[in-house]
Structure formats: structure tokens, C-alpha cells
Amino acid sequence: MKLIALVMIVPLVFVLLLIVKRVKHSKLMAKGNLEPENYKTGIEHYNAGRMLEAEYAFRETIRISPGFADAHFKLGNLLTERSQFEEAKNAYLQALRLKPDYHQAYNNLGNLLRFNGQHQEANAAFRSAIDIKPDFPEALNNLGILLIESGDLEEAENVFRQSVRIGTGSFDVLYNLAMLLEDRGKLDEAETTYHQVLGINPDFSPAANALGLLLAINGRPQEAESYFRDVVRLNPDVPFAYKNLGLALKESGGLSEAEACYRQALAIQPKDSDTLNCLAELLTETNCLEEAESTYRLALKVMPDNIEALNNLGILLRKTKRMDEAESAHLQALAIKPDSAATLNDLGALYMSTARFQEAETAFRQALKLDPTQPEASDNFAVLNLLFGNFELGWEGKEYRWKTELKNKLRGFSQPRWDGKAFPGKTLLVHCEQGAGDSIQFFRYLPRLKDMGGSLVVECPPFLFRLFRENLATDVRLVRYQEALPDFDFHCPLMSLPLHFNTRLETIPADVPYMKPSAEAVANCPTLQTLPGAPFKVGVVWAGNPQHPNDNARSLDFSLLEPLFAIEGITWVILQMEQRPEGFECLVKQNGWLDPMDSVMDFADTAAVIIQLDRVIGVDTSVIHLAGALGKPVWLLLPFLSDWRWLLQREDSPWYPRMRLFRQTALDTWPEVIQRVATALSAERDVFLQNKSHI
């Protein structure tokens, strides 16, 4: 569940200013009239909540003094509170007949008419109140609400602003204005106005919640967190307060506290389907898949038509490779809401993962027809185009990544995005925004920027700093994440460079090597001595980052590599930093494998290891990209549906000319892939040994 869905929990409910507050009854009386005794008694009963007694007193006042307008007005208020709308309307009209300039009566009559759906008549009543008293903030506020309900948002905004200008800093009017500004997309001004509301009334939890939502939706979950904590403090028994805080914590990486918040919300309201869905989504993210599935199913038991839970269950089932069940869940969600762009997108992603590409394209196109701005569908459709080598559409569509997986990494630079044109005399900042593998892959574009006439600044993560420094021109300024940036005129995310260079399959800059290890890293790297009778040095890596969304497909179990290790004549070099099996050190010693990774601190050190190898074999990880960039022969093991950059059905890669691809021919068939690799590796070993014997 994305945080934007939480707006449904706190609907756009504007604060109506009915002039019926018991504590302010003196403001409601017509001036210059003496109050009959029965009327005073009625006010006392009304303020004490004794409505029957109050009604009797007001009616007695009207019987004795039928021309006393305030009694009719107060009776109208009382009848409105008791939902006796027709009688209340008549009471207000009688008050107005007796006192035509009774602006408070026009205001309350307008509210009554609005509640009954008589918008045209309500509009006239509010405007009559404002004509009588132009500086009447309550009537202006209520007219603004009516205009919103009638769809005239611009006029509503004008009316609210007028109410604020002539009011006395009323936080409820400001709150209405803030929500309208947010609804109209004026987010900066909405944020400022919410702050004004909380400046007047720090304990007004609807404003704190709304501001938290605005910040969270716009990629600022850590700032949102403090406001949601205020909502929890002010509403400790309200479940949605904990849920919103949990969502903000999840977005900012505080998964364990987020889980605790969801569970607290469920302790208060155990059968809340939306909160169960949120908890299940978090459990999926933390790989507690069995509990996640049971929690999704509980959410659906509570609310069978919860399409978000159905779709999320489908995603989990796809992750656990139960494709038929996943498709059934998505189709069930689509049957409930056929015009759901989100469901069509999820269904398209399932089809793409099972190589049903035509069905995937149809689903994505349908989703975008329903909602052309749907970022997930746009991003997935871009991936599909890149997978087929349709780079023109693919690069453009991948810019939607800033509204999907990278929405919380959007940099708030005041400088504009680079447009791809030459920038003589100017400075361009290029910043890494993806993982290490992507950064290494697209590093190849950086030297081309030197030909565009300006200065270049590159920002990268610390673990790539030494590698990048060695391979960039000396006049390129390189900075680490979190370091102060020098002045620059434009900025560009690294992965946007292929778009700006109009990259097509035939124009990929594929000269290798385009990286080399530093002399310092080579000098400090231990020499990899081959074993006796095993001169062929092969590096191996079998798993990537477990947090990668496709890691369960791209990584493989270490035990599956046994047929490779059984091949004689090879010195195996371990390139795997983490995700090692239990007892791995013993296996290394028993089999004579070389394990230099204890000496590796960053990718410069890894490069110094790889440069000593004859070949690298592994799954789709940053190590594979580094080996390809160093120009080493690489054999890449790919799942049935691989990442877009490896295209379809090819055994080579246009990105890395010395790379060979070994693909699964069906879903989850790693043993067959390993067997093909073993056969090919035995042949390569023989060629290597034969060539070595001729030296």
C-alpha cells in the first residue's frame, strides 16, 4: 500500500462553521432587543444540553412574543441539531421575515439547505449573508465548501482566501484552505498553510495528520513521521494514527517500528482489512512470506473485495513462483474493479515474468489508457520495450522511475535537470542513483560528457569512489555521497545519460575495457596462486543483494554449483562477499578454493582481484558488471526472465562484448543451466590448457 491511499482514511472533510455553538449564544442574538425571560431560560437549558426543556422555552417565547426573531433563530438551531430539517428551515425563514438583515440566520439556513442537497438555494443563502455583512468569515467559509462540492475550485479558493483575510486567524478556515490547495496541486502553499494551522492550534490532529500525509506522499517520510507521532500522542486509541505512522516509518526504513505500529493498530481494531494488508506488505518485504500470506488472506476474509490486498497477494504468490495462483488473484481483483489501472499493471508484470509478452503489453496499454499518468505501468511498459530492444520508447519511459522505485531518492536541487545539450562554460553534476552494478554499467557515458564543453562533477557512493577516481579524467571533480557539493549549473541522474545520448542497440558504447584497477589496489591485493595442475583461474559469484526485488529469481543456491566445482584443472576464486552457506570456511579449505574477499574493502579492491582471473562466472550482480567493464571473459547465469539489459534470447550482450549468457529455458531450472555451463567450461579448460602448453 502506498501512503497516498491513506487519504481515503482521512477524507476531504471541511470544517463547517455553523453558528450554533452554545458557548457563543450571545453572538447569535439580534442586537437592540430585550430578551424575554422564557428565552433566557431556553438559552440556559440549551447550553446545558436539555433540549426538550429548551424547545419548550423557545416555543413559549414565540407564543408570547411572536415578533422576537432570535427565538425563531435559536429554535431553528435546536431543530437542526435534532435533524428536524423542514421545521428548522421554517424557523430560519420566519426569523428572516422578522429581521431581513439577520446574516447569521442566512448562514445557518445555507448550511441546512446544503446538507439537504439544495446547493443552488444554499448558495443564495450564503451570498445573502455576505451581502448583508461582507466581513462575515463564517459565511465565506461555508460558501467555499459549497463551491468545492459544486466543482468550482478556483472560486472556492478565492472565497476561502477572503475569509482568511477578514477573519481572526481561525485555524479551521485555514485548514479548509490548506486542504483545497493540496487538492489543487499547490503543495508548497498547502504545506505552509498547514503549518499556519498548527501554529494557531498545535493540538489540531486533523491538520497534523494531513500535513504528515502531504509530506509522506511527496517523498519526505522522515519529516512526516514527527507529525504522525503527534497524531498518535493526541489520539492514542485511534487505529489509523498508528497505521499512518507505520507507513511513514516503513518508507524511511524503520521496518521493525513500523511493524509494531501496525500491530498496535490491529490490537485496537483487529479486523481492519487495510491495516492487515499494510502489515502483510511489510512482512513480504522482510521475507516473512508465510505470515505475510496468511495475513493477506485474513484481510480478504474480513473484506473479500479488498483489491489492494488481492493484488499484493498476487505479487507475493508470484514471488514464491506460484504463477497460476498469482494470476487468479489478479483476475479476481480485476473482476471486482475492471477499470483498475493498478490491477492491470500488476497483471502485466505477472505476464512479463512468465514471458507472456503480448499479454503483458496489452495489460500495460489498457492500464495507461485508463490512467495515462500511472507511473508503475509506464515504468513497466518501458522495461518491456527495453527488453525487446526498443530503446527509444524504453529510455523515455524509464524516467518514470522517479515516481516509482526511486520516488524517495528524488534530489531536491534548485538547479535544473540537464537537457542533453552542450554546456560550454557551465558545470554539470552527474549523480549515481541506482545500485553499484548500474553505476558501473553506465559509467561508460561519463567520458563522453567531457566533449560537451563544460566542467563535470560526479557524485558516487563511497564504495565506488576509488574505482571511479582511477577511471575518470583528473579534471573531473568526484565527490562521495553526503559530501558537500561544489557549485554546478545543471544536474543529471547517471541512468538518464543513455536517453540524452539517444542510445540505440547499435550505438551502445561497448569498447572494453573502460575500467581498470588502481595501482594502489593492485599492489595491496594478494596474488592469486593457482593450485598444482589447475592453472585456469575462474571467479564465481552466486547471489546478489537479498533486498533486490527480483533476488529470489536471479540468485541461486550455492549447492547447485557442485557440478562446476567437480571439474578438474580449475582454481576457483570466491568473489561472493555475503550470502555464504554455513560452514563455508571449511569448504574453502577442504577444496583448496581461493577466498581473497577478506582483503576487499570496496570495488577498487574487487577489481584488483578480478584482473588476475581468466574468467568470471556468476549471476546478475555488480561483480559481473565490474568484470565486464574490466574486459574480462564473463559467463552470466540468467533466470527465465532476466533484467531488461540482457534482452531476450541472446547469448551475447551488446553492453559487454566478452560476455556470454546462459539462460534458463523454463522457470526455475537452474540445474539445467549449470549443466550447460559445466559442459562449456570443461571445453574452455581444455582449450586454455592446450594454448598454455604451446607457450
From TrEMBL:
Positions of the TPR repeats?
69-102, 103-136, 137-170, 171-204, 205-238, 239-272, 307-340, 341-374
A Pfam family name for this chain?
TPR_12
> Which SMART domains does this entry report, sorted A to Z?
TPR
Q: Which residues form a coiled coil?
A: none
Q: Which UniProt keywords apply?
A: TPR repeat
InterPro entries per the UniProt record, alphabetical? TMTC_O-mannosyl-trnsfr, TPR-like_helical_dom_sf, TPR_rpt
SUPFAM superfamilies from the entry? Answer: TPR-like, UDP-Glycosyltransferase/glycogen phosphorylase
Gene3D superfamilies in the record: Glycogen Phosphorylase B, Tetratricopeptide repeat domain
Q: What is this protein called?
A: Pilus assembly protein PilF
Per the UniProt entry, what species is this protein from, by scientific name? Candidatus Methylumidiphilus alinenensis
